[in-house]
Amino acid sequence: MKNRLFILFFLGLSCYTGYTQNEPKPVGPLPSQNQLRWQKMEYYAFVHFSVNTYTDMAWGFGNEDPKIFNPEKLDCRQWARICKEAGMKGIIITAKHHSGFCLWPSKYTEYSVKNSPWKNGKGDMVREMADACKEFGLKFGVYLSPWDRNHPDYGKPEYITYFRNQLTELLTNYGEVFEVWFDGANGGSGYYGGANETRKIDAKTYYDWPTTYQLVRKLQPNMVIWNDGGDRADLRWVGTESGYVGETNWSLLNATGDVPEQMLRHGVENGNAWVPGEVNTSIRPEWFYHEREDRKVKTLPQLLDIYYHSIGRNGTLLLNFPIMPNGLIHEKDEKAIQELTKTIKETFAQNLAKNAVASSEQVRGKNARYGANKVIDGDVDSYWATDDNATSGSITLDFRKPTTFNRFLVQEPIRLGQRVKSFSVDAFVDGKWVPIAKETTIGYKRILRFPTVEATKLRLNVLDAKGCPLISNIEVYKAPIVLTPPTILRDKEGLVQFVSGDKESVIYYTTDGSTPTSSSAKYTSPVKTDEGKADIKAITFNPFTNQASIASEEKFDISRKNWKILSTEDANANKLLDGNPSTSWHQKRNQPMPAELVIDLGKVERLEGFRYLPAQNWWEEGSIITHYQFDVSQDNTDWKTVSEGEFSNIKNSPFWQIKPFAAVSARYIRFRALKNTQEKTASGYAELDVITAN
Ligand code: FUL
């Protein structure tokens, strides 16, 4: 009787704690149920659409007339179909972007679809999006920008009430919402109901996020919160909008305190809160639609890199489709995502680990329940575990015949914490173990790419972990080879260079705009182009497999050979004309703003715009100019301003900034940096270029 009581007591205790006697203890912090559900989604979409879609701007100013908003062919079902066919699990819509314009008829403002010609002001795009998601079996999420460049009260406490009222509308009237996005951007200036001024707020205190979070939790208890500007939410930004998270990626951060970029990229190994990374990027360079980017849609190799650098690195992927003014996703974007989907499907079609025999010498208590075969049993909840005193261990997969593969997928059961600090993978080739990879973290999912290998066995070695290592899943694949096209660079003298990362391959190119093949000119040394514009295309070609990459293309404007920088004697300044994005020049410190750059083009040119690339070492002082003025002159004395304004989203997306203006003839140009991100004087430049008329 006594014994029985003891057993009953023990069973009761294990039920109470949720663990059976032998189950490994969790290594905290742990994900919440909402975070776990979200992580399993892996892949979902963003759609960016607002009044600034019609003004060709990255950010609306808040003064755009609602009358310009008229997506005549709007079809949210097209968006949902494209995302569903791509294997995505949800869509997040910019219900309100920084312009303040609302895609739903909010009762708290007139600045919304209700004052647009679209559906005679009777439309509700958030509703149409939510309905389309439901129809296509997708989850639905909302982006509600805290920064509102239209609202007169922005900066005052009244605005917070307005913001929460809007949030309540969105989280009450449209069914279940899986994620809400609170973007932290705040460039200061705005229309603000006609005040046309700069309003800075203290993002740490102004929004009072804890109270807003309480409201959110009450209205949508199953939702995750994304917030890069305020108090720690459920998910973190990964510090870049280019589509990758660090190779080392802990789903942990510290619950309080500042988060420098490095931490966003890698998480914090000993962080005290579970805040996993979401990789957000756009299928084109910018978030909103710009016709000039129709030929800049990301290519298959670029999208594959993004896939492996997000989902393959313990992140989720939030991929954006900019909506065109007519209300549809562009066919080029659809084609690009279809190509990615096809390649992903082909890659992960046949799991070669399934038929292998798995073994390990470090099975927890020699208990079959934690045996090595748990990593290939297709059950995500079962896992291999070692004894508590171990922080390392190996699993071997025996294919029992020569097997070729080039992808390795591995998962930890993160409900028990993220543990693995380092691991390696070996292949058994010709009777000996050959190292394939040595890596750091795993987390929810890690996918490694490596050159194709033929082996009879594969071995995962967990080298170090924060507790006894646990592995829930291993998959092995042979992916089709997709060659990456070369990068094309043209220097100041007009010499063109092609750069490829693939050592086995050769490069073929054309300079007349035609599509290169293996019969085109072969690249051996830099190619001279004349001083005019140049349309260069190139492919990577593998002579052993006869396989070619898609073509890369660069359309260069006039060469900068005869340009002379007049505003400084510093020879290093020529780096901004050298055609190499990774070299840069910073203006002298403590020089009064606006910092000025004056260039003699050598002769009169017909100019239609300019391009600026910020210094790519953007952590250095003043690297990124945010506000500018661009002037032209015939004689270096009389100047005319032809373009002036902001590089809206340059801080998060420090890429080429293109500013077209009405055509004008000039020999001199003057680029003035009015402000930079750090409000320091040493403004930085990687490249400066002009756009000339044909
Ligand atoms: C950024 C915003 O400023 C961009 O416009 C875009 O919405 C992106 C997703 O977040 O920080």
From TrEMBL:
Domain of life: Bacteria
Enzyme Commission number, as recorded: 3.2.1.51
Ranges where the F5/8 type C domain occurs: 337-479, 540-693
GO BP, one annotated term: glycoside catabolic process
InterPro entries: FA58C (IPR000421), Fn3_assoc_repeat (IPR026876), Galactose-bd-like_sf (IPR008979), GH (IPR017853), Glyco_hydro_29 (IPR000933), Glyco_hydro_29_N (IPR057739)
GO molecular function: alpha-L-fucosidase activity
GO cellular component: lysosome
Record's keyword terms, sorted: Glycosidase, Hydrolase, Signal
One Pfam family named in its UniProt record: Alpha_L_fucos
Family per record: Belongs to the glycosyl hydrolase 29 family.
Protein name: alpha-L-fucosidase
Organism this protein belongs to: Runella defluvii
Highest classification ranks of the organism: Bacteria, Pseudomonadati, Bacteroidota, Cytophagia, Cytophagales
